[in-house]
Amino acid sequence: MKFIDQVKIKVIAGNGGNGCTHFRREKFEPKGGPDGGNGGDGGNIWIKTNRNLNTLIDYKFKKNIIAENGYPGKSKNRTGKKGSDIIIEVPIGTRIINNNTNEIIADLINYNSKILIAKGGKKGIGNTKFKSSINRTPYKNTLGKKGEVFDITLELILIADVGIIGLPNSGKSTLLKSISEAKPKISNYPFTTLIPNLGIVKINNKNNFIIADIPGLIKGASKGLGLGINFLQHIKRCQILLHLIDIFEKTNIIISNIKIIEIELKKYNKNLYNKPTCLVFNKIDYYDHKKLIKKIYSINNKINTTKKIFFISAINNIGTKKLCNFLLNYLNEYKK
C-alpha cells in the first residue's frame, strides 16, 4: 500500500432544511390552522481514528467531503429528515490543521478518538411554531442555516516507541525485519526504504513495543536532499532513537558518519536531536572475533559520547535480544 502522510481536503457539512409554510385544507375545517413542519438539521462531518489504517491515500483524490443536507419540513406538521452524518476514518496519529489559520484543531493519538470537524446547519422552523393568539394564520417560516465549511490538512505522524535512523544501507530495514514481524523491502542499494515501516517487537505475551524504520538520511538532508528528511516528523513521538551505524568502515569514517546524522538532526529539529539515542553498530558478523575486539576498541577510543552503545549483527540476530530487552526496560521506566 502506498504511504500518504499529508492530504488537503475541504469538509462541507450539510445545510439545514427549510421550514414549511402550509395551512390545513380539510373538508370540515374551512379555516384550518397552520401545519407547516420544521426542516431537518444538516449532516455533521466527524473524523475518527481507525487502528487498521496506516495511510491517508483514500483522500488523495477525494478533495471534497460533503455531508447530506437536511430535508425541508412538510405539511401536517411533518418534520424533514435530518441529513446523514459522514465519518472520515484516519490512522491513529493523524493531526488536523485548519488551512486558513494554521491552527492545529486536533491531534488524534488514541484508539477510537472521534471529533466533530464540521457541524451541520440548524433546521428551519415551520409556520406552525409561529401561531399565537394574535396571529392565527402565520405565513412566517425560517430557512435552514448553512453547514460549516473548512479547508483542512490531514497530517499523519506515525506513533512508534522506537525510531531507527541512520545513513542509507546501514541495515535499518534488516534490523526491523529481524526483531519484529514487519516485512520491509531489503536490497543492496541506497534508499531501499522509501516510506516509513512499522513493526511490533514482541518480547513475550505481555510485553511489546512499536518500532519504526525511517528512510536513510544523507548529508544535506535538512536542506531537502535525499528522502529521510521528509519523514523525520514520524519519529518526533518516539521515546528513544536507535542510530544505526555500519561498522564495516574505517573508524575515522564511522565517526564522520555519526556526525553527519547528528548535524542533520540538529538542523532539522533541536528537540529531535536531544531525544534519547542509542548508538548501534551493525554488521559485526563481517569480522572474526579477534578483529572485532580490535575494531570495538578503536571505536571506543575515538568516540566521545555518553550515549548507550550496542554492537550487533541484524542479519544474524547477534546482540539484538540484548538491545530489545534494554529498549523494553527503558520504555517501561518512561511510562512510570
Automatic annotation (TrEMBL):
- The superkingdom of the source organism is Bacteria
Q: Thylakoid among the record's keywords? A: no
Q: Kindly give the InterPro entries that the UniProt entry links to this protein.
A: G_OBG, GTP-bd, GTP-bd_Obg/CgtA, GTP1-OBG_CS, GTP1_OBG_dom, GTP1_OBG_dom_sf, OBG_GTPase, P-loop_NTPase
* Residues binding Mg(2+), per UniProt: 173, 193
**Major localization listed first in the record, in broad terms:** cytoplasm
Domain named Obg: residues = 1-159
GO process terms (BP): ribosome biogenesis
**Compartments reported by the entry:** Cytoplasm
Record-annotated OBG-type G domain positions: 160-332
Record's keyword terms, sorted: Cytoplasm, GTP-binding, Hydrolase, Magnesium, Metal-binding, Nucleotide-binding
Cellular component GO terms held in the UniProt record: cytoplasm
The family line of this record is: Belongs to the TRAFAC class OBG-HflX-like GTPase superfamily. OBG GTPase family.
| Assembly and interaction partners | Monomer.
Question: What does the UniProt record say this protein does?
Answer: An essential GTPase which binds GTP, GDP and possibly (p)ppGpp with moderate affinity, with high nucleotide exchange rates and a fairly low GTP hydrolysis rate. Plays a role in control of the cell cycle, stress response, ribosome biogenesis and in those bacteria that undergo differentiation, in morphogenesis control.
The record, for NCBIfam families, names:
Obg_CgtA, PRK12297.1, PRK12299.1, small_GTP
Protein name per Swiss-Prot or TrEMBL: GTPase Obg
